[in-house]
Every structure is written in structure tokens, then in C-alpha cells.
Design a protein that fits this description.
By secondary structure, the protein is mainly beta. The protein is 7% helix and 41% strand. It is globular and about 50 Å long.
């Protein structure tokens, strides 16, 4: 996980992927969220549940004056570090199905169709109360309050090395959102991504670890206004 966080922060600091500030307009292709997490698969690998914590959300600076990353905006402070799904205030959850175009027992190059689905971002001011032992079957009421829901387009996940690594790209369209308070400031994903976002996911070890960015889809001027 420490390695994944290091790589993710590297992605976030590269050129046009730099996160926007609270008062800046978010043009098409600018980072909306950075994520890290992983997927839990069903026993027959016909689908599963993808879960991310969000170490970067546009509109909130996550860096100290000296340029070091400050997790305090997104994670419960204390001995629960490193940042994870267990101590992050925001949690992305999406159930998925998998349709294999190639036999993974015979090929290292495998294409997997992931049909369209939905996703939910949960907010929990006390994330340690989350029960994450069985993400697929758990009672999700412990995960927090749903603050944003999305429809996820169908996409193609592929690997060239037998799932030692994989890549998945999809679009998420915002379908509902509600205002919540994050570190004393009101926040609403409708302000951030009213037209949705495209997510670029890099997975490792059968997608048990995933990192990447979601960038805002254009469609008009967007200004994030925070008090």
C-alpha cells in the first residue's frame, strides 16, 4: 500500500494531471479525484466489488507549504496510518461483473468485458466504524452516508502478463449527490463533476491493488466555490 500511494502521488503531480485549486475552473481532462484501493472477487471470478479510498479530491489542497503530502484532509488522524479504506472519510464502491474474452488459464494476454454498472461514494466521519471484512456481502450501512452515485459505462479491462498488472478505463456519470461537510467545509460532487468523469485505473496482482485518477468530463464552465 505504501508503494501504491507513492506511485499515485507521482501520477497526481505530473503536468496536466496536477489537481485544481478551490477557485480554479475545472476544464475537461483535469484531475477530479485520485484513488487507491482494490477489488474483491467472487470465488468463481465472475465479478466482485471494487473499493477505493480517495487521497486526492480537487478543491482541497493536500500538500503542506513545503510540498509534502498531508493526509489530514482525507483520513482520520492518529495511529491508523498509512491511509487506507479503513480510515479514509470517502469510500468509492462499485459492484461489477466480468465476461472473459480469453481463457485466463491458457493466456497471459486476457481481455475482460465489464458491463455497465453503478458506483457510490460514501462519507463517514468515523471511518474506523466501517465493517470491511467481506466487502461483497457486508451490511453497507456501516460504510457511511451515500453522498454521490454514478452510472458506470461498460469498459474493457485487459492484462498482458496474466493479471500481474492490468488496465481499466471507464466513464462514470453523476446521477445524484448531496452536500456534506468535509473538514468544516461544505462539499458536493455536483460542483466538482456535474458532467461526470473518466477513470484511468492501473491494477496489480489481479486488481487486488488499484491506483489511478479520474478526470473531469467537459461540457461547460465549472467553478468550485468553497467558503
Amino acid at each position: 500500500m505504501r508503494y501504491a500511494m507513492f506511485v499515485l502521488l507521482g501520477f497526481l503531480l505530473v503536468g496536466s494531471l496536477a489537481p485544481i485549486n478551490a477557485a480554479d475552473p475545472a476544464g475537461a481532462g483535469q484531475v477530479a479525484i485520485g484513488f487507491s484501493g482494490g477489488s474483491t472477487w467472487l470465488p468463481d471470478f465472475s465479478g466482485g466489488t471494487c473499493m477505493w479510498h480517495l487521497p486526492m479530491v480537487a478543491g482541497y489542497t493536500a500538500f503542506n507549504a513545503d510540498g509534502t503530502y498531508s493526509p489530514a484532509l482525507y483520513y482520520l488522524p492518529g495511529p491508523t496510518n498509512p491511509p487506507s479504506m479503513q480510515n479514509g472519510y470517502l469510500l468509492w464502491v462499485s459492484d461489477f461483473k466480468a465476461q472473459y474474452m480469453d481463457d485466463p488459464t491458457k493466456n497471459k494476454f486476457v481481455r475482460v468485458q465489464a458491463p455497465a454498472g453503478t458506483a457510490t461514494i460514501y462519507f463517514n466521519a468515523n471511518p474506523l466504524s466501517r465493517d470491511l471484512k467481506d466487502p461483497i456481502h457486508n451490511d453497507r450501512t456501516t460504510w457511511g452516508t451515500p453522498v454521490a452515485t454514478f452510472t458506470r459505462t461498460a469498459g474493457l479491462l485487459y492484462t498482458t502478463d496474466g493479471f500481474a498488472s492490468d488496465t481499466f478505463i471507464f466513464t462514470a456519470t453523476l446521477t445524484s449527490s448531496t452536500t456534506f461537510t468535509l473538514n468544516g467545509k461544505p462539499f458536493n460532487f455536483k460542483r466538482l463533476v456535474p458532467n461526470g468523469m473518466t477513470c484511468y485505473e492501473s491494477g496489480m496482482n489481479g486488481s487486488s491493488t488499484e491506483i489511478g485518477n479520474c478526470v473531469a468530463i467537459g461540457g461547460g464552465s465549472l467553478v468550485i466555490t468553497l467558503p
